Amino acid sequence: MFKPSCYSCRKKFEPSALRVSYSKNYCESCGVGLFGEDYFSFPPKPAPTTRRNLVVHGAVVLLVGGFFLFWMSVGGL
Ligand SMILES: [Zn+2]
User: Fold this and answer.
1) 3-state SS record for the chain
2) Which of the four pLDDT bands, split at 50, 70 and 90, describes residue 76?
3) Distance 60 CA to ligand 1 centre (A)
4) pLDDT in the model for residue 53
5) How far is the CA of 12 from the centre of ligand 1 (A)?
6) pTM of structure
7) CA of 1 to the centre of ligand 1 (A)
8) What are phi and psi of 21, to 5 degrees?
């Protein structure tokens, strides 16, 4: 399974062990070293959800389906 990495030390962490600042992930030791107490005011990284994968999957299915319909309509002319 995909594990996000810390922007500073590049180690892999569980999403719950990371916090996000300007869409970059920081682990606690790097974040506290860089930002001090401010680190704890950053939002935690949201856990990846299967719903997002389903959205991507649905988009691919729609794209392929649309292309197939297009191909059928062109072939029917
Ligand atoms: Zn780090």
Assistant:
1) CCCCECCCCCCECCHHHEEEECCEEEEHHHHHHHHHHHHHHCCECCCCCHHHHHHHHHHHHHHHHHHHHHHHHHHHC
2) low
3) 34
4) 77
5) 9
6) 0.60
7) 20
8) -135, 120
CA angle 56, 27, 2 (to 5 degrees): 30
- The whole-number pLDDT of residue 49 equals 72
User: Cα–Cα distance between 77 and 73 in angstroms, integer?
Assistant: 7
Residues sharing a CB contact under 8 Å with residue 19, sequence separation 6 or more, in sequence order: 25, 26, 28, 31, 39, 40, 42, 43, 44, 45
25-74 tens-digit pLDDT = 999 999 999 999 999 999 999 877 767 777 888 889 999 999 989 898 88
31 touches 39 (CB < 8 A):
yes
